[in-house]
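Support reply, case 0932

Customer input (verbatim):
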Amino acid sequence: MNKLQVIDLLELLRRAYPSIDTSKESVDHHHKYLNDFPFDTARANVEQHILTEKWPPNIAEIRGRQGEQLERTRMRKETQAYFAQLELWKKTAVPPPTGMREALYAKLGRTRED
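Our regenerated output:
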């Protein structure tokens, strides 16, 4: 994230929390800890914070819980892969061979109507 993006975040925060410091020192301080962080993610975190919290966020809250975000992303990808596999199975599913169901029922000692 560059300094202009940090200024954009601080201005967004100042509109919601008038006590936010937007001085050059504050911009430099925030930039020091946010320069390696994606702006889009930080902005989304700030917007969510504004919707749910009455106090301004600190830098850790602007960054969000990155570990949790990474885990959510990993789980989302795994879920999409699982659903894709389910769709493939649906498309390739075939009924069991003739007589197999009856043989299984016979082994269980039941009739098909049970």
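We compared this against your earlier run and they match. Two observations from our side: The chain has a mean pLDDT of 91. The domain at 3-64 is CATH 1.10.8 (Helicase, Ruva Protein; domain 3). Please reopen the case if you see a mismatch on your end.
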